[in-house]
Specification:
Protein name: Nucleoside hydrolase
Order of helices and strands: EEHEHEHHEHEHHEHHHHEEEH
Strand content: 15-25%
Organism: Pandoraea captiosa
Distance between the termini: 23 Å
Number of strands: 10
GO molecular function, one term: purine nucleosidase activity
InterPro entries: I/U_nuclsd_hydro_CS, Inosine/uridine_hydrolase_dom, IUNH, Ribo_hydro-like, TAT_signal
Keywords: Glycosidase, Hydrolase
Radius of gyration: 19 Å
Length: about 375
């Protein structure tokens, strides 16, 4: 949800990539439609060549959220839990990212408590560090706990015993073809490890929707790289090359969905528990930007993935080829988007560029209002 500030040394070179880069780049099965978008979207300024997305007409999705809570992750989880008629959220798998794994898994269990899902939403702890690198975090942004701005309690429920990767492998192996949507809103280490260890599970994936990357707006962790991709670029490369449908919700969208005091106020006015919690988290993001840049606005990151699942017609984008820089000294973690087809490589992702921000905030407010 916020701009990440990197440490001074960002030159950690990978040791070996061969064992992880086992899957090949293949065309995505994501489909792009140019009809069915709301009339309000037609007046938006879009990136040249982008098209409004069409509703897919599908019923309730079976969803697993792979996350690293993290302020914006917390709101995304609550957003999904407030949308039960469209999202059947089966589990949270957790990775080290915004803060170390012992905090991200704790935070995931706290968030489910806020929504009264302590017993019904399992949480699985996964990889504590990237595939080939040391973990870098965004604790300077998210706070030492990862959930700066809200009062935290001791989680009321325990972790599930299986490792998150084991859970993903077992679940995908047992699922019907094209039946499971994975939402990746942290570093993609867990998902990449599962797809590498058990590539046959890919057949069960309907779509991977990930928050990560930047192209037209550039990076928030380095000049070239967005945080989630920078933390584990090898994992991102594996996921984008796995031959499954991928939709990327990048920083390009997040900066068109800015959090402002006026947009926080309706959440503060809700009379439930979760509304003021969301308001506190949003306000913490704006406060960080105020301290850092002197502006009272902040990007909206992870919840945009849930909005895409619920109402794809509020977005615009294009199927493109996306590659991840895994060796560059200055460009490590950059998502290289072939917007105009110059490389002739097949499209492997839907890259979103535009969003109707007013529709987004109206939908988020409606769904948070449904929670306890």
């Amino acid at each position: 949800m916020n701009e990440r500030t990197p440490p001074h040394d960002m030159t950690d070179e990978p040791r070996s990539r061969r064992s992880f880069l086992r899957t090949s780049l293949a065309a995505s099965l994501v489909t792009l439609g140019s009809t069915g978008a709301a009339s309000a979207f037609a007046t938006m300024t879009t990136t040249e060549g982008a098209s409004p997305l069409a509703a897919d007409g599908a019923t309730r999705r079976t969803v697993i959220i792979d996350c690293d809570p993290g302020q914006d992750d917390a709101i995304a989880i609550l957003f999904a839990l407030g949308s039960r008629e469209q999202i059947d959220l089966r589990a949270l798998t957790v990775v080290g990212g915004n803060v170390p794994l012992n905090l991200t898994e704790r935070n995931a269990r706290i968030v489910r408590d806020w929504a009264d899902k302590t017993r019904s939403l399992p949480v699985y702890a996964g990889c504590p560090k990237p595939l080939m690198r040391d973990l870098v975090t965004a604790a300077n942004v998210m706070g030492r706990s990862g959930l700066d701005g809200v009062e935290l309690h001791e989680p009321r429920g325990a972790l599930e015993k299986p490792h998150a990767v084991t859970y993903l492998i077992d679940t995908l192996r047992a699922a019907a073809p094209a039946s499971v949507t994975l939402v990746g809103i942290g570093p993609l280490t867990n998902i990449a490890t599962a797809l590498t260890a058990a590539p046959e599970g890919a057949k069960a994936i309907r779509e991977i929707v990930l928050m990560g990357g930047a192209w037209f707006e550039r990076g928030n962790y380095t000049p070239a790289a967005e945080f989630n991709i920078f933390v584990d670029p090898e994992a991102a490369s594996i996921v984008l090359g796995a031959g499954v449908p991928v939709t990327v919700v990048p920083r390009d969208v997040s900066l068109k969905t800015l959090i402002t005091p006026a947009r926080i106020a309706p959440f503060r006015a809700l009379r439930n528990r979760c509304g003021p919690i969301v308001a506190d988290i949003l306000a913490a993001g704006v406060a960080y930007q105020k301290r850092r840049r002197g502006v009272e606005e902040a990007p909206m990151y992870d919840p945009c993935t849930i909005a895409y699942l619920l109402e794809p017609t509020m977005f615009g984008g294009r199927r493109v080829n996306v590659a991840v820089e895994t060796t560059g000294q200055l460009t490590l973690g950059e998502t290289v988007v072939d917007w105009n087809g110059r490389t002739k490589r097949p499209a492997n992702a839907m890259w979103l560029t535009d969003i109707d921000a007013e529709r987004f905030y109206a939908l988020l407010l409606e769904r948070i209002a449904r929670l306890p």
